[in-house]
Amino acid sequence: MSSPSAEEESSVPLSGFSDHDAFADFYHRTAAALHGYVTKVTRDRAAADDILQMAYLRLLRAPRMDDAHRRAYLYRTASSIMVDRWRKLGSERRHLASQPSIESYNVHHERTMDLHHLLNEQLNGRERALLWLAYAEGFSHEEIAKILGLAEKSVKVMLFRVREKAKRLLSSPMGGEIEHE
Q: Which of 36, 38, 73, 104 could be joined to 48 by an S-S link, Cβ 3.0–4.6 Å?
């Protein structure tokens, strides 16, 4: 994850920033957290790099806005790019990716799987995004709703459901395997 090169910077208009230094400052303050969010949700570091780059390029072409709106815009844009990417992967690949790992059936490993692994294997992308935005990034329900394009009340309900699902996963005797909803 590196900042845009000088050649790339000079070829992209900075409609939302006063100058390249302002963009560079904003990038350095936000890139690591955004990259962490995208990597967590996609579980693919290379895809996260691409999504991060696309999100910042879209931000550069967006109208001028304050830093708080820029940050929300970045997360909303990255979330939209992830959804577009998932749609392009096709139903077969999504189906294979959503299947539990062999280890989740192995009785010897059921108690050694850590929370991170368990939740990553059993939660879908939207569920991981909800948890990450709420608890890792500290976004409010209203901000999460804007980022993911949902109603605020839906976010509250969905967060409740994913927390309940996580509880069931952690208490399941099969090492976290439950029926997918």
A: 38
